[in-house]
Sequence to fold (147 residues):
Amino acid sequence: MDAQSRPTVTRLDDQRPEGPLILVAEDQAATRLMIKGILKQFGLSNVMMTSEGGETTRLLQTEKFDLIICDWHMPNVLGIDILRVVRRSEINGGAPFIMVTSETNAASVAAALDSGVTDYITKPFTAEILISKVQRALKAGKKGQTP
Fold:
């Protein structure tokens, strides 16, 4: 197994940065780091990252997140299944969930909406699109509702 395919969880330092805790679940290292970099540019530096679906679902059982950004095509557990786990979770059931994917067909979008996705971003995307949807999701999450 090469370094690119091994599961990766980046944990926070002992001193948690201020602001909402965001989970970025993305198997592609370049995309994962790009999302983290965009979030950091906009003052959102409290980010944990995972690269594999099983590790993501395990982390979601122990950590409470203010926002989850997840790729559809995660190894071992698909993003849509991670979304379903989140929505049944006592810890993260109400957390805003943004699906990031190249899936644009109507059936996939409908499945995500039926499963309770907060928003949907198709790849490729710009920093402006990501931040707009993140800000809207975080604002809605504080109110306890979806945008």
Q: What stands out?
A: The chain has one domain: 35-143. The domain at 35-143 is CATH 3.40.50.2300 (Rossmann fold). The longest strand covers residues 67-71.
